[in-house]
């Protein structure tokens, strides 16, 4: 079955540590996204990538980094510079066929800072 | 700039009653509209979408929505809810760029 996988489902980080969240898709989508979800705030865009080796900052990119070395993969690193990283992180992808269609979402990773 | 407003943060409703979840958007260009559902600790799942054509859109699980361009609204409706519909619902909009704007969500609580 085609879809998006995220791992791990739960992640715990100590203060000062960098952690990397995995996102893989087998939908052959060009565009991939990372969102952060906090209670009552909806989804906020961290980074997005339209094609391999290219990505753009979203609304809340500070303290995060990404890479897009393969079409299928878009890992997110939460760095020690992110002062409040505890949140639910969602990865998404989208086909580039016109008309532009919906995003497909992974199951999410819940990050907790200890 | 685009924006999405979900007017109700929480909506309690009794089982088998009808429900409407409201969504209003702001945009200076044509938009594509979506409703997603999220169950606890899961990702978002598409309920329905409006891209063009008929303004009444039918989705999964008996949900439907009506696109009203003059009122810039895209309200979600279901004529009879079930306990299993308890979840958070998000409205989203895009103008065809890579960016999607999401509302802050509406928690639907179906009561027995």
SSE arrangement:
The complex is a heterodimer of chains A (114) and B (112).
Chain A: E1 4-7, E2 10-13, E3 19-25, E4 31-37, E5 43-51, E6 54-57, E7 64-66, E8 76-78, E9 87-94, E10 104-105, E11 109-113
Chain B: E1 3-5, E2 10-14, E3 19-21, E4 24-26, E5 32-38, E6 44-50, E7 56-58, E8 64-68, E9 73-78, E10 87-94, E11 101-102, E12 106-111
Parallel strand pairs in B: 2-12
Antiparallel strand pairs in B: 1-4, 3-9, 5-6, 5-10, 7-8, 8-9, 10-11, 10-12
What's this entry about, in short?
The complex is a heterodimer of chains A (114) and B (112). Chain A is mostly beta strands.
How would the global form of chain B be characterised?
globular
Cα-atom Rg of chain B, whole angstroms?
A: 13 Å
Quaternary arrangement of the chains shown? heterodimer
> What is the 3D form of chain A?
globular
Structural overview:
The complex is a heterodimer of chains A (114) and B (112). Chain A contains no helices and eleven strands. Chain A is an all-beta fold and 114 residues long. In chain A, strand 4 (31-37) and strand 5 form a beta hairpin. Chain B has strands at 3-5, 10-14, 19-21, 24-26, 32-38, 44-50, 56-58, 64-68, 73-78, 87-94, 101-102, 106-111. In chain B, strands 2, 5, 6, 10, 11 and 12 form a six-stranded mixed sheet that branches. In chain B, strand 8 and strand 9 (73-78) form a beta hairpin. Chain B is globular, with a radius of gyration of 13 Å. The A-B interface holds A 4, 6, 31, 33, 40-43, 45, 48, 50, 56, 88, 90, 92, 94, 98-108, 110 and B 9, 32, 34, 36, 41-46, 49, 51-52, 90, 92, 94, 96, 98-100, 102-105.
